[in-house]
Automatic annotation (TrEMBL):
<keyword id="KW-0235">DNA replication</keyword>
<keyword id="KW-0227">DNA damage</keyword>
<keyword id="KW-0234">DNA repair</keyword>
<dbReference type="GO" id="GO:0006281">
    <property type="term" value="P:DNA repair"/>
</dbReference>
<dbReference type="InterPro" id="IPR002008">
    <property type="entry name" value="DNA_pol_X_beta-like"/>
</dbReference>
<feature type="domain" description="Polymerase/histidinol phosphatase N-terminal">
    <location>
        <begin position="344"/>
        <end position="423"/>
    </location>
</feature>
<dbReference type="GO" id="GO:0003887">
    <property type="term" value="F:DNA-directed DNA polymerase activity"/>
</dbReference>
<dbReference type="InterPro" id="IPR003141">
    <property type="entry name" value="Pol/His_phosphatase_N"/>
</dbReference>
<dbReference type="GO" id="GO:0008270">
    <property type="term" value="F:zinc ion binding"/>
</dbReference>
<keyword id="KW-0237">DNA synthesis</keyword>
<dbReference type="InterPro" id="IPR027421">
    <property type="entry name" value="DNA_pol_lamdba_lyase_dom_sf"/>
</dbReference>
<dbReference type="InterPro" id="IPR037160">
    <property type="entry name" value="DNA_Pol_thumb_sf"/>
</dbReference>
<dbReference type="Pfam" id="PF14716">
    <property type="entry name" value="HHH_8"/>
</dbReference>
<dbReference type="GO" id="GO:0003677">
    <property type="term" value="F:DNA binding"/>
</dbReference>
<dbReference type="InterPro" id="IPR003583">
    <property type="entry name" value="Hlx-hairpin-Hlx_DNA-bd_motif"/>
</dbReference>
<keyword id="KW-0239">DNA-directed DNA polymerase</keyword>
<dbReference type="InterPro" id="IPR050243">
    <property type="entry name" value="PHP_phosphatase"/>
</dbReference>
Length: 582
DNA sequence: GCCGTTTTCGGCCCGACTGTTTTCAGTCG
């Protein structure tokens, strides 16, 4: 942003969220408050700078923005704030809004704490609790004070989201333990943000179906790994595990399974919008089904919910985009990549470098997944810590691959490499060596902290190289860890599209790189992608499903993913087998 | 404050748990 103090989309969203919180505490109409929140969410979702929308005079075309909010946005962009926000900020200290982040504190209690006790921040709240000042307030009993104290502690203890891969594994383990103790479970699945493949997860939402829900709840609440039960009813139990992670189980009879899974998968706005469709039909939708005039229509399968409202089924990772429902209603939802589309894995490691499986073991695991070929891409010698391969060991490896191919035909193992892009931008192996391979995946592992220009130039050099077919994990980021290099991604997309070099969605849940927004931008720029596991053990091939999740969040069509192609078609697409500009 | 397959006015998602003012408000997912 050029001008100083310029408000970007996130800033605009933040201003309206702040306004909504403060007005809610003040006791304003909840519909008005919801309107500001809805506008804030629209600003977050805008595909272009809000300043550009304003310049075209199209602010009121943004969903949830009418004349009143449009005028406030204009003031905000011109002066950094607007009258109503200034007014309410002068009336209520902004720190009071922070109280809303504490479990069991909503707008009413935040106002009560501020008015009665002068609590203006989380620190003030802690102090008031320590001094026992919450107990005597009318309208806030000792029980509520205790829950608020617990909520404040849990906020400080568990204010973290887990990487998807960790949360997913933990959720599956929890489900396995629960199944042992509750054999009456007919169906059970991780829902919520895990099912939508968000890259980080704040809690586990578990949907289950059983004839006797209370028995399942009982088994869940008495698991040894439970630290604290937050609430419990006949169909539902929310608790905190000993590691501090929250888990929420909902159980209904199997005839409600579809609507329960739909409800728990969300996201919230997706759920609400379909419920609004139910209202438009003179009824209402809940986790039990569609009810109108005392009659309940239960939904046993999730697709039944969509079908009832005349919608195409929407894959969970696509549900966070409001456009999905509009398109599904017109029968125009685009096809996106599914796990079943994948015919190969083009990035995996064996015991020739830092993997744990042999070439044969990896090939057998891939064949068991239904793949028809793989590329073995062990590290090149420059990554010495990973026992990287030079020309001589590559020739030895070729002999082993030939033997496996002779045994497993028609399954086919390609010999590839994960080629280091050195700190100075040169590639780690000479062209003759690369030309002897079937496929080359290049990667920037080192020097990610170099400046934008230098690190971008290294990646561009790899993309332009006539023997490089794929750029692996293009940003180098680690989920919940390092941010990755400061690449000029727009330049990378353009050059990858021009040269026909594929960009990878590395499906290792610690990487997920490209991430969803990047993959979407890359496809829009005309790039071809790959979805690869980067597996280092045979079981790691299953991580491909996490990459498919990223692709679905990015609305990637299957025909833009290189490893959906049959082997012959893939080979024909490689630069080395075409005559192309270099 | 927004918005239109009931509507330009009068609606705005649903159900459940907790604690308590014991008939329901507040909070949550």
């Amino acid at each position: 942003m050029a001008e100083q103090g310029q408000i970007d989309n996130r800033g605009a969203a933040g201003a309206f969220r702040r306004l909504a919180d403060l007005l809610e505490i003040r006791g304003e109409s909840l519909y008005r408050v919801a309107a500001y929140r809805r506008a804030a969410e629209s600003f977050d979702r805008l595909a272009e700078p809000i300043t550009a929308v304003r310049a075209r005079g199209e602010l009121e075309d943004i969903p949830g923005v009418g004349t009143a909010i449009a005028r406030k946005v204009e003031d905000l962009l011109d002066s950094g704030s607007f009258d109503l926000l200034r007014e309410v900020e002068a009336e209520i200290p902004p720190g009071v809004a922070a109280l809303l982040s504490v479990p069991d504190i909503g707008p009413k209690r935040a106002r009560l704490l501020y008015r009665e006790l002068g609590v203006e921040s989380l620190e003030d709240l802690r102090e008031a609790l320590d001094q026992g000042r919450l107990d005597p307030i009318p309208g806030l009993g000792a029980g509520a004070a205790r829950r608020i104290a617990e909520g404040l502690n849990s906020l400080q203890a568990t204010d973290e989201r887990l990487p998807l891969g960790v949360a997913h594994a933990r959720g599956l383990a929890l489900i396995a333990r629960l199944r042992e103790r509750a054999p009456g479970i007919r169906r059970i699945e991780l829902a919520g943000s895990v099912r939508r493949h968000r890259e980080t997860v704040g809690d586990l939402d578990i949907a289950a179906a059983a004839d006797d829900p209370a028995a399942v709840v009982e088994a869940f609440a008495t698991l040894p790994e439970v630290a604290n039960i937050e609430l419990r009813g006949p169909n539902r139990c929310r608790l905190v595990l000993v590691d501090g992670f929250p888990a929420d189980l909902w159980v209904l009879p199997e005839r409600h399974w579809g609507s329960l899974l739909f409800h728990l998968t969300g996201d919230k706005h997706h759920d609400i919008r379909v419920r609004e469709m139910a209202v438009a039909r003179g009824g209402r939708l809940s986790e039990y089904g569609f009810s109108a005039g005392g009659d309940l229509t239960p939904f046993a399968e999730e697709e039944d919910v969509y079908a009832f409202f005349g919608l195409q089924p929407i894959p969970p990772p696509m549900r966070e985009d409001p456009a999905a429902l509009d398109l599904a209603g017109r029968g125009a939802l685009p096809e996106v990549l599914e796990v079943e589309h994948l015919r190969a894995d083009l990035h995996l490691h064996t015991d020739w470098s830092d993997g744990k499986g042999t070439v044969r073991e990896m090939a057998l695991a891939a064949r068991a997944r239904g793949y028809s070929y793989i590329a073995v891409t062990d590290h090149s010698r420059g990554l010495a810590v990973a026992n990287g391969l030079g020309p001589e060991r590559l020739r030895e490896q070729r002999a082993e691959i030939d033997a496996v191919n002779a045994e497993l035909a028609p399954f086919r193992v390609l010999q590839g490499i994960e080629l280091e892009v050195r700190g100075d931008g040169r590639l780690d192996l000479d062209d003759d060596t690369l030309a002897a391979l079937d496929l080359v995946v290049a990667a920037v592992h080192s020097g990610l902290r170099q400046g934008r220009e230098r690190v971008t130039e290294r990646a561009l050099a790899a993309i332009r190289h006539p023997l490089v077919d794929v750029l692996a994990h293009p940003t180098g980021r680690i989920v919940g860890g390092r941010a990755g290099g400061d690449f000029d991604l727009v330049a990378l997309y353009a050059e990858a599209a021009r040269t026909g070099t594929a960009l990878e969605i590395d499906a290792d849940p610690a990487r997920l790189d490209l991430r969803d927004v990047h993959a979407r931008a890359a496809v829009a720029a005309g790039c071809t992608l790959t979805v690869d596991s980067d597996a280092h053990v045979p079981g790691g091939l299953a991580n491909a499903s996490f990459g498919v999740g990223v692709a679905q969040r990015a609305w990637v069509p299957p025909d833009r993913v290189l490893n959906t192609l049959p082997l012959d078609a893939l080979l024909g697409r490689l630069k080395r087998n075409r005559s192309l500009p270099s």
